[in-house]
Specification:
The structure holds two protein chains of two kinds.
Chain A (H helix, E strand, L loop, with lengths): L11 H6 L4 H31 L13 H37 L7 H20 L22 H4 L2 H31 L12 H32 L13 H34 L7 H14 L15 H29 L8 H24 L1 H7 L3 H31 L5 H28 L20 H31 L56
Chain B lengths: L7 H4 L7 H30 L3 H5 L4 H26 L3 H31 L8 H32 L5 H26 L2
Helix pairs in contact in B: 2-6, 2-7, 4-5, 4-7, 5-6, 6-7
The chains are: A mainly alpha, B mainly alpha.
Chain lengths: 558, 193
């Protein structure tokens, strides 16, 4: 299929607001996700200030009341997972890179793609609208356990709770549409010659993430309908006094919620794989083994969910089984990390900013993984459950995924997206200014958690058994580190905007990379490829001896 | 969007499966887990609450049985429409699709009649665990019937002009899925005691 197709440049409205071009939709997802990230960060600032400096006026938010604290925590969690990690990692990178890396002109179904973003935008607006209603936004935690979430009499945010639920459900619909489109495009629309094992690892990871998402979210959609009816039509699905069962929600939620961890982890792992191959000038060590471990992770992710419910009154024999499966899943993930380290071994390593982020991902994520063992074992979890140890563990997995890997991907593909290079010096300042404070935020929280600090307590001083004034300096340290980390994000925002005009011109292939997106101009034109490419080999032909150039792009015949 | 404006990505078939059929199967797969989650929740509750059998005995089994017959018959028309589309007979496919839609309409009318009787007897969504599941499951299924009917009429309008005939098969696949969901719902909601 090498016939050239004419692609007319569309008008402004068509191009930016009603676009079907996958690159524009990627930018819509990216910028919506980044805007929501600023909001999520602002909320974290709010409740951390309350922890660091209890009951003082917080600049920009005023006094944090218990209700406000709950709303901030809930919205921070929901936004960062559903409106930042998902749209940026999967939808923005997926939309931008899938057609480019596979060598085709767009998604297989461009209008479904557009619909996906429109529903996503609607979901974000529904969520934001909950800030304007009576009672304010939902404050029953991002996990929304009934009966708290099911009854306005308990959560005191009857409208906010329903809007939250609707927003999440719409977001699921958006990602189902997008994910199915991604999957079909990858299965069917690859360039001639691109076999299953010639697909770049990132694309594999995004597709497997979408399949996991699709297979796990269905029961929660059903669960959301039931919760919606409990909230608005006085059914009793989750009400034990009327024949319902609140544990049912926990099962449905975590049957999705735990695979969701891997839904966002896999694209991050994929981004890191692309980057370490390019910046160590080596073939990915064990391409197929990476995929096998990914499949194993995907399968196991469906049989670990109840490790979130060890203290919820489940049968202890069940707890044993879920402890074992949880420990099992660490094996393929660890193997994946080992494969990445083996790729670095003996490579010609270039420490450009994207590579720094990629290496930081591996290092920080390992801390998250190792601390997960304590929470996945039912014995230790009963003590550590719902303490700040859990908060610190979760953020040692999630910040590497949603922040560090995203920065790795953004600094790596920025030249392709916008045609200019980011400033390296500013990039490195931003890197160290993010990664160091990140550790200073969460290492103290491991300690306060082990000492017994429960999460979701807005002021320890009001609870005699929780107060522990000796730990206050750790809570305050964490808050100050957060302020430092947030202020360093200004460096990135400045670099991002400044380089759009003033960055060095990137050229088609600034990182000397092999995959197909680097064979087209930066930024790629509408329709992507002037002539549709043919693929001759796998994606990681680096460090080739006896050649003028040390790499061989996928589309160049020998 | 005319056929010539489709992206190259839409016209390729690396798996050998037509892209339209492939995406239909993925949509159905994603729907299976939605209904699967709801049905699994219902079955678990039903096992835990033998007393729900009393509520279930109030359902109109004969109406459910008639609806099963109607849906299965409409699926037959969907198959014949696919056959006609394969023979490039768009107008005939369109006619058969409209007959399928008629089946969906009869199904929904019977459903409406049934629910009216149920509600008059005092059994509403919040009348108890069984009724909550009964209305939620059948309601979600009914929405799928309705959506299928709307899409089918759009596909039929194109097919009548001999356009996008590949869609006849796809909407047929979807209709069979909706049919099969009902095959699960009927015994679980009406017959199980």
């Amino acid at each position: 299929m090498s016939a050239q197709v004419e692609h007319a440049e569309p008008g402004i409205f068509q191009k930016y607001l009603w676009a079907t071009d996958h690159k524009i939709i990627a930018m819509q997802y990216l910028f919506t996700g980044m805007a929501m990230a600023l909001l999520g960060a602002f909320f974290a600032y709010g409740f951390r200030m309350q922890q660091g400096f209890p009951n003082q006026n917080v600049p920009g938010l005023g006094l944090i009341t218990p209700a406000k604290y709950n709303a901030l925590v809930t919205m921070h969690g929901s936004i960062m997972i559903f409106w930042v990690a998902m749209p940026v990692l999967i939808a923005a990178f997926g939309n931008f890179l899938i057609p480019l890396m596979l060598g085709c002109d767009d998604m297989a179904f461009p209008r479904i793609n557009r619909l996906s973003y429109q529903i996503f935008l609607l979901s974000a607006l529904v969520l934001l609208s909950s800030f304007l209603v009576k009672g304010g936004p939902f404050g029953g935690a991002w996990t929304a356990y009934p009966p708290l979430s099911a009854s306005g009499a308990y959560n005191l945010t009857p409208i906010g709770a329903t809007l939250w639920l609707l927003a999440v459900a719409l977001e699921f619909v958006a990602f189902l549409l997008g994910g199915i489109n991604f999957t079909v495009t990858t299965m069917n629309s690859r360039a001639p010659g691109m076999k299953m094992y010639d697909i770049p690892i990132l694309i594999w990871m995004i597709i497997l993430a979408n399949v996991i998402f699709m297979a796990s979210v269905g029961p929660l959609i059903a669960g959301a309908v039931m919760l919606l009816f409990d909230q608005t039509m006085s059914t009793g699905f989750y009400d034990p006094t009327r024949g319902g069962d609140p544990l049912l929600w926990q099962h449905l939620f975590w049957f999705f919620g735990h695979p969701e961890v891997y839904v966002v982890l896999l694209p991050a792992m994929g981004i890191v794989a692309e980057i370490i191959a390019v910046f160590s000038r080596k073939k990915i060590f064990g391409y197929k083994t990476v995929l096998y471990t990914t499949w194993a992770v995907g399968f196991l992710s469906f049989v670990v969910w109840a490790h979130h419910q060890f203290v919820a009154g489940i049968d202890p024999r069940m707890a044993n089984i879920f402890s074992i499966t949880t420990l099992l899943i660490s094996i393929p993930v660890t193997e994946m990390v080992f494969l990445y380290i083996a790729t670095l071994y003996g490579g010609s390593i270039h420490l450009d900013t994207p590579m720094l982020w990629a290496l930081a991902f591996i290092a920080e994520f390992m801390i998250g993984g190792v601390t997960g063992i304590f929470l996945g074992s039912s014995g230790t979890d009963i003590y550590l459950h719902d303490t700040y140890f859990l908060i610190a563990h979760f953020h040692y997995t999630f910040v590497p995924i949603a922040i560090i890997a995203v920065f790795a991907g953004l600094t790596f593909w920025y030249p392709k997206m916008f045609g200019r290079m980011l400033n390296e010096t500013l990039g490195k300042i931003h890197f160290w200014g993010t990664v160091i404070p990140f550790n200073v935020i969460f290492i103290p929280l491991f300690i306060t958690g082990i000492a017994g600090d429960q999460r979701r307590v807005y002021n320890y001083a009001q609870f005699a058994e929780q107060s522990r004034p000796a730990l206050q300096h750790l809570r305050t340290t964490s808050t100050i580190a957060l302020l430092v980390m947030l202020s360093f994000q200004l460096v990135f925002l400045f670099n991002f905007v400044w380089s759009l005009r003033n960055g060095k011109s990137a050229g088609a292939n600034p990182w000397r990379s092999t995959t197909l997106e680097w064979t087209v101009p930066s930024p790629p034109p509408h329709g992507n490829f002037a002539e549709m490419p043919t693929v001759y080999r796998g994606p990681y032909e680096y460090g080739l001896p006896g050649r003028a150039d040390d790499f061989l792009p996928q589309n160049v015949p020998e | 969007m005319s056929a010539s404006a489709k992206p190259i990505a839409n016209t390729r078939s690396a798996t050998g499966i037509p892209t339209a059929r492939l995406i239909t199967w993925w949509v159905i797969a994603s729907e299976i887990v939605i209904f699967g989650g709801l049905l699994a929740s219902y079955i678990m509750h039903r096992i835990g609450h033998p007393e729900w059998a009393e509520s279930a005995s109030h359902t109109l089994t004969w109406a459910g049985a008639f609806n099963t017959f109607v849906l299965l018959t409409s699926s037959l028309f969907a198959v014949l429409a696919h056959k006609a589309a394969d023979a490039h007979d768009g107008p005939k496919a369109a006619k058969l699709l409209r007959l399928t839609t008629l089946g969906g309409l009869i199904f929904l009318c019977v459903k409406g009649y049934e629910w009216t009787i149920d509600i008059r007897e005092g059994f509403v969504l919040s009348s108890g665990g069984f009724w909550s599941f009964y209305y939620t499951l059948a309601g979600l299924h009914g929405l799928h019937v309705l959506a299928g009917m709307i899409i089918m009429l759009i596909v039929a309008a194109d097919a009548a002009k001999n356009q996008e005939l590949q869609r006849v098969e796809c909407i047929g696949l979807y209709w069979h899925f909706v049919d099969i969901v009902w095959i699960f719902l009927f015994p679980l909601l009406y017959i199980a005691r």
